[in-house]
TrEMBL record:
Transmembrane domains' residue ranges: 12-34, 54-72, 84-106, 136-155, 162-182, 194-215
Classification lineage: Bacteria, Bacillati, Actinomycetota, Actinomycetes, Micromonosporales
Protein name: Uncharacterized protein
Keywords of the record: Membrane, Transmembrane, Transmembrane helix
Transmembrane helix among keywords: yes
Keyword match Transmembrane: yes
């Protein structure tokens, strides 16, 4: 079994449970809000959009802290683990971005149809789906890569050197947040043209993945005490 397939099997239940929780919160809270006032922001973007960052950050950390040693000691090479982990987080990030984007479109469609959208609600139509996906995906992937790099920095260097390594490890997430991330009102920084922002963010993230692969290949696997 490939590393990516094994990782999907290990995390499948967690992914489904987490998705179920997010959807449950959405369908519970939004009707309560609209019962008192029109919706002036996307609750889904605020909720699932945050999950697209912080949940993938934790997932990236778990790749190193929970899986690196297990896979290597069970016969997988470090190179194979790094490659499989890269495939895994890329597919997960794309899936998360698709869920966030489609969820926003569905929420938008429903609240507009019911007349519960305020004038400043970030309406998303079918034509806007690719553009929003193009913002959420780089952010989701960047946070996963940052999590993996932070965990690998501590695993490989330990202590204060791991703390220092957190600074460059945070670059993928920091760049994506500064350039392409959108908030619950569908707004982004808009510092540069859209395609340039996405290209810069993805370039930094891909570089981070390359660093992850190089550092993983040379990492010493720690023995369990006792």
């Amino acid at each position: 079994m490939s590393v990516s397939s094994a990782l999907f099997r290990l995390h499948r239940a967690m992914i489904l449970v987490f998705a179920g929780i997010v959807v449950t919160v959405e369908v519970t809270v939004v009707p309560i809000i609209t019962n008192f006032t029109d919706l002036g922001f996307s609750f889904w973007l605020g909720l699932a959009g945050s999950a697209a960052k912080y949940w993938t950050l934790v997932l990236g950390i778990m790749l190193v802290s929970g899986h690196l040693k297990v896979f290597v000691t069970n016969g997988y090479t470090r190179r194979a683990f790094a490659a499989g982990a890269t495939v895994f987080v890329t597919i997960v990030a794309a899936g998360v971005a698709a869920v966030v984007t489609l969820g926003h479109w569905l929420e938008s469609t429903v609240v507009v149809a019911l007349g519960e959208a305020a004038s400043d609600y970030p309406v998303l139509t079918g034509g806007g789906l690719p553009g929003e996906f193009g913002r959420v995906f780089p952010v989701s992937l960047a946070w996963a890569v940052t999590g993996a790099l932070i965990a690998l920095g501590f695993y490989r260097f330990g202590g204060w050197r791991g703390l220092i390594a957190m600074v460059p490890a945070a670059l993928p997430a920091a760049v994506s947040e500064g350039l392409v991330a959108i908030n619950e009102r569908g707004l982004s920084a808009d510092l540069l043209p859209y395609l340039i922002e996405v290209l810069i963010s993805l370039t930094v993230t891909v570089f981070g993945l390359a660093v992850f692969g190089l550092l993983t290949r040379g990492v010493a696997i720690r023995r369990t005490a006792g």
